[in-house]
Structures are given as C-alpha cells and as structure tokens.
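Researcher: Can you fold this with zinc ion in place?
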Amino acid sequence: MHGLAGGSGPCENAIMDERQFYDEKEETKQIPLTCPHCRQESTFPVRWMVRTKKAQPPRGGNEEDRAKFAKARSYMVRIDNMVACRNIKCRKRFDLTGQTVFLI
Ligand SMILES: [Zn+2]
C-alpha cells in the first residue's frame, strides 16, 4: 500500500525543480557602502548566488518544463543581508539595501 493520496499517473510527472535549469555558483563581490551609523564608506564583500541557465533543458522534462526553461533567465540573488561596519569605533551591523535579484 502506498500512503499517498491520488496516485494517478507515473512518478515522472513530478514537478521539475526550477534549480535543474541552472548551474549554481557562489560569488563574492566587493560593494562600496556607507555605514548609516558613522557615515564611513568602505568596501564590503557581499555574497551572491549566481544561477546560470544551462545550455540544454534538463532531461525527462515535459512540455511545460521545456516552456518554463525557454522563459528562464540567468540571474543572481544576494545571499548576505547584513554587513558589519569596518570602522572599529562603530562596528555596527546594517542592512544591505537595493535589489536582491539581478537578471544577468
Ligand atoms: Zn559605522
């Protein structure tokens, strides 16, 4: 007995994870920011997850998956949300502002 409800259709029809469309790579970019507490400007290493669209759609996908793949775009998502001020007299943490997702 299978415990799952429904059970119609083969397992291969499971919804494809969008991540299979991309090669993932973590990248650190140096971004100049001004601390809102002490106003000192420094460059901070900010981590991004870069998702580069694969050249070919994943195998085993259905038509819907292929349509989604065709529409997919390479993009990057910011991982870090906060940085710590470099000024040793301040050292306060502050939020990163601006876009968190960029199309590449
Ligand atoms: Zn500061």
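Model: Folded with zinc ion in place. The beta strands are 22-34, 41-53, 75-78, 82-84, 93-95, 101-103.
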